[in-house]
Amino acid sequence: MLKTIRFFLPTKIIFGEDTIHDFLPEISRYGKIPLIVTGRSSVRKSGLLDSITDILNRKHITFHIYEGVSPEPSVDDCMKVAQFAIRCNADVLVAVGGGSAMDVAKAAGVLVKNTGSLQGYFGEEKFKNDPLPIVAIPTTCGTGSEVTRYSVIIDWQSGTKKTISSERIIPKMAILDPVAIKTLPPGIIAGTGMDALCHAVEGFLSIKANHLTKIFSREAITLIFDNIEKAVQQRKIEYLSNLLLGSLYAGFVINHTGTIVVHGMAYGLTIRYQLHHGTANAICLPYALEFLKNHGYEEEIHDLEKIFSIDSLFDINKKIGIPVHLSELGIQREDVDVLAEMAVIGNERAFRNMKMSISKEEFVEIFSKML
After folding, report:
1. pLDDT digit string (tens) for 231-248?
2. Nearest to residue 93, comparing CAs of 131, 130, 134, 65?
3. Which of 45, 239, 242, 314 is least surrounded by Cβ atoms within 10 Å, i.e. has the fewest?
4. Who's near 201: CB < 8 A, 6+ residues apart?
5. Where are the extended beta strands (E) located within the chain?
6. Which H helix or E strand runs over 364?
7. pLDDT of residue 8
8. Cα(117)–Cα(114) distance, integer angstroms
9. For residues 245 and 223, what is the distance between their CA atoms, to the nearest angstrom?
């Protein structure tokens, strides 16, 4: 007998080539003065920002642009976007970019409509007033943030990443156009694609997983495994489309399940060593699964191994240019203790999605193997 299934997705999803051109004008349904929120340069360099502004100008839609979201955004990024939005009277935020732009837009949307500091809203449903609506246009194939209830932000006060979680920050509309990711460098395709794989796998292992989320997990895993190597090496639209779709499905999953230990382990690598978020997750994933397989997750890992083997994760990382060992990044044995401490802090929320917690000593064991 199936256990109770809860599935909520308020996002209007548009997926397909050139859908930005056809559907971007629909942002006027959510607000009259959009603020485009994006990173420092990649969206402009790719020509996508010019395409978006041309579409809006032809439709006589007044808009503003904020360029400057950090690759690993902090509370300060969110405050700057919120202040900019207030100054230009924006009533809808259009996040164009990877997870950084989307997460910052979500957090800024909360700050525009609620008083106080962002730290006061970390956690579950901590704000009173509904935030500004978000329209998301992902330009990477890994985050899933276009359909999730999370905004993950670095809080330098606590020295880790913190999460705002609310169904009210889920984007109202997501336009997933494979054309928007065709100019991605191979390394970013690899890192973001593996990030999506981590979402699907961690969601599969979450205690909040259900029959429906596992369907999306399996499909996402298959799409990513079948296409990531070819997408990195050839960058054909067919393979990129499949990766983007896999990322979307994985977003459906973690919106309901959350992530588990892999993301929390990777936070230290991104914060302390400035390693790309998805790349850090990819390095951690096989080692985390090996540990879980021997610590209470034998049945669940056995189910996953019907789709892929843990050894195949090491192989695919090598093929797409992702390091297998931490020593390849210059990380040494004396760093292990700090990484373990950061993993305990980073997994505070993730442990709630797991059957058990992992101690600092156990993280030392895992990171030592990763060296």
Report:
1. 999 999 999 999 999 999
2. 134
3. 45
4. 217, 221, 262, 285, 289, 304
5. 12-15, 34-39, 64-69, 92-97, 123-124, 134-138, 150-155, 160-165, 173-176
6. helix 360-370
7. 87
8. 9
9. 8
Q: How confident is the model at residue 360 (pLDDT cuts 50, 70, 90)?
A: very high
CA end-to-end span of the chain: 44
Q: Mapping DSSP to helix (H, G, I), strand (E, B) and coil, where does residue 63 land?
A: coil
> Which residues, including other chains, have CB under 8 Å from residue 162's CB and lie 6 or more apart?
119, 122, 152, 153, 154, 155
What average pLDDT does range 340-354 have in this prediction? 95
DSSP state string for 99-134: HHHHHHHHHHHHHHHS-S-GGGG-EES--SSPPPPE
CATH number of 12-180: 3.40.50.1970
DSSP single-letter state for residue 74: B
CA distances from 358 to 64, 191, 199, 211 (A): 46, 25, 19, 26
pTM: 0.95
* Intrachain domains 12-180 and 185-370 with the same fold: no
What pLDDT, in 10s, does the model give residues 198-221? 999 999 999 999 999 999 999 999
| Tokens of residue 215, six digits | 């369907």
Q: What is the mean pLDDT of the chain?
A: 95
Mean pLDDT of 120-144: 96
Q: Which residues pair with 138 in a beta bridge?
A: 97
Do residues 95 and 101 make contact, with C-beta atoms less than 8 angstroms apart? yes
Residue ranges per structural domain of the chain: 12-180, 185-370
| pLDDT higher than threshold 90 for residue 115 | yes
C-alpha separations of 352 from 122, 257, 355, 358 in Å: 16, 10, 8, 11
pLDDT value of position 3: 74
222 burial (CB, 10 Å; 0-12 / 13-18 / 19+) is middle
pLDDT above 70 coverage of the chain, percent: 99
Residue 25 contacts residue 55 (beta carbons within 8 Å): yes
CATH topology of domain 185-370: Dehydroquinate synthase-like, alpha domain (1.20.1090)
